[in-house]
Amino acid sequence: MPAPAPRTVSFAQAARRVFDLSLGQMLWSRRTIFLALVVSAPVVLGLVVRLMTAFGIHGSVRIGGAAVISGPSIFGLFIWLLYLRFTVPVLGVFYGTSLIADEVEDKTITYLFTRPIPRGAVLVGKYLAYLVATVLVVLPSVMLLYFLVVPVGGGAIAPTFPSLVKDLGLLGIGLAAYGSLFAWVGCRFKYPLVTGLVFAFGWEQAIMIIPGYLKRLTIAYYIQGLVPHAMPMDDSALSILQVVSRDSVSAPISLISLAVIWLTFLILAARAAGRREYVLEQ
Q1: Domain of 175, in residue numbers
Q2: φ, ψ dihedrals at 62, nearest 5°
Q3: pTM
Q4: Which of 137, 163, 148, 179 is closest to 80 using CA atoms?
C-alpha cells in the first residue's frame, strides 16, 4: 500500500496554529516580564503627578505663558513622549527581532521548518502573537495612567474617552509598523537586536531633529503626523505639538505610508524566513 500523502495545510491555518503555539510562550517569557517593568514606568510617573496634585504641591509648568495643568493634556503628552517615542519602539525591537532569532538561538527552528507548512506562515503566526502579546502588555499600563492623570486639574474622564480610543489605536498602529520592520530585521541580519536598537534609538532619534527629507525614512515621522489628531489638547499642549510636529505630514498620508510600511516589511519578512537557510551553531 502506498503511503498516504501528507495533509496539506493552508497558509492561514498554519499561521493560526503557530499563533496559538507562540502566544503563551511570549506572554510567559522573561522578555515580557522585563518589558512589563518598562511600561510600568509611565504609571509610576502618573502616580507621582496625582499625589503631587492631591497634596497641593504641584508646580505649574508654563509654556508660552500658559500653565499646563489639564489632566487630558498631560495624559496626551505622556502618550507621545513615553509611549510612542520610547515604549512602542522598545517593544517592537525586543519582540520583532526575536520572532525567528530566538528559535535559531534555542535551536528549535528545525522543529518548525520541518513541518509541512509554509515557512512564511511561521513568521506571520509569530508576528500576530507579538501583536496580541504587546497589546496585552501595554493596555493595562495605558488604562492605569489614564485614570491617574486625566482627573488632574479638574479634568473629566467621560468627554476624553474618544481621545483615549484614538490613542490606543495610534499605539496599535505603531506596534504593527515597528513589529513588521523589526521582524524583517530579525530575518535578515546576523545581530538583529543591535541593528534594531541602532535604528530605533540612533537613526530615528538623530534624523527627526535634522531638517530635510531623510526623516521620511523613519516610522516616527509618520506616527508624528497622527499625534495632533489623536491627543486631547488645550492651547498650551497644542503649542508643544506645533513645535515637535511642525514638519509632519497630514493624517491621511501618514496612515497610507504606515500601511505601506507595515505590509511591505511583513511580506519581506515572510519571504526572508522562507528563503533563508539557517545554520545552527554547535
Answers
A1: 11-275
A2: -115, 135
A3: 0.85
A4: 163
Is residue 62 helix, strand or coil?
strand
List, in sequence order, every residue forming a beta bridge with 127; answer none if it has no partner. none
Q: pLDDT at position 66, please? A: 47
DSSP string, 30-63: HHHHHHHHHHHHHHHHHHHHHHHHHTT-PPPPEE
Residue 128 lies in a domain: yes
Q: Residue 170, CB half-sphere, CA atoms under 13 Å: how many?
A: 27
Tens digit of pLDDT for each residue in 40-77? 999 999 898 888 877 766 544 444 444 445 778 788 88
Report yes or no on 109 lying in a domain.
yes
DSSP 210: S
**AA identity, residue 217:** L
- 138 neighbors 87 (Cβ within 8 angstroms): yes
149 residue type, one letter? V
DSSP code of residue 212: S
For 196-211, write each residue's pLDDT tens digit.
999 999 988 888 887 7
The SS3 call for residue 67 is strand
Q: Tell me how many degrees the CA angle 182-224-170 measures, rounded to the nearest 5.
A: 70
Candidates 28, 186, 164; CA nearest to 92 is 186
Q: Which amino acid does the sequence have at 206?
A: A
**In this structure, are residues 218 and 224 in contact, taking their beta carbons and an 8 Å threshold?**
no
User: How many domains, in total, are found in the chain?
Assistant: 1
Joined grid coordinates for residue 222:
509618520
Inter-residue contact 167 to 256 (CB < 8 Å): no
Residue that is written with C-alpha cell 501528507 in the block: 6
C-alpha cell at 66: 500658559
Residue 203 placed within a domain = yes
